[in-house]
Amino acid sequence: MRIAILGHVRQRIAQPFAGGMESHCWHLAAGLQDRGHDVVLFASGDSDPRFPIDPVVEQHYERTFPWAEHRGSAPLIAHLDAGYAAACDRIAAGGFDVVHNNSLHRFALEPARTMVTPTVTSLHVPPYDALHWFVRSSRSPHHRLTVTSARQHDAWWPEGAPAEASILHNGIDPARWPFHAEGDGTAAWCGRITPNKGPHFAVQAARRAGIGLTLCGPIEDPEYFEAEVAPLLGSDIRYAGHLEGDALARAIGQASVFLFTPCWDEPFGLVAVEAMSCGLPVAAFAMGAAREIVGEAGAYAECGDVAGLADAISAALAIPRDVPRQRVLSHFTHDLWLDRCEALYAEARRGDDRMAA
Question: Which structural domain, as residue segments, surrounds residue 302?
Fold first, then answer.
């Protein structure tokens, strides 16, 4: 198939990944290419040149508009609207069999567009006002909607989801996150360093549990890092930087337990799955989809409960390392995910009118 992948343009689709959405989009493009599909990545022009790129904007928007997050800036909205309008027009004229929309932009959801190019839209975030109405009005026979967890399925459609919506768990390549039979007695944490990811809670709980901790990931909120995380660093707590590829897998895989501390309605938790593939049991805040994704491979505390998280670290360390690895192999592999994507593409192209169901 000739497939357009429409990405979010806040960050580059390239390693080291800024977050789960960028990782998802990169591995989707790479996986579909490996399966023989003709893939064009519609993303920022500074994304990974290994892919054929049709730029939505010339460079990711946090370089052009350096804010920590989208805050309703009129110039930024106009910039993104112009880029996505032109990109969607090029997709419509480009002879694509299907578009996999990961953009979180309203234009790709319009029924007039999905009737021209069959579309699968993956929603990687909880419902929010700027997108919620457009998702609800996007129903068409050639459009499929996915969310990453049952938790998000219920959040987007508390009254009951439409027939064309389904759960599409993210998947990873276990070979990129190899199993380690033993850990070194320390803990690991990985993610965007920002308050809603809770790394300061991970540090506090590790100290309380008497275990060393390595933090990895991009510093998205420098003020938060300097105020809440940096003062806690020391010989037992270290920040290893924003690592990529094999270096990140080694840093995570050598640890004995992974700390997962979402302080928001986490839609999935890709970093936890990557750590589980390496054999790490998880001590987690029970927020968002954490229990659903980690399951029997973890122990849990309520969000913000440092003492409870320290207890969860002790409980997680007692879980055999083959338990998290097997959970990944059974539920969250790259091949399972890509199989499901291809099935959704076929549904969208057929145009099954399931809306009457």
Answer: 174-331
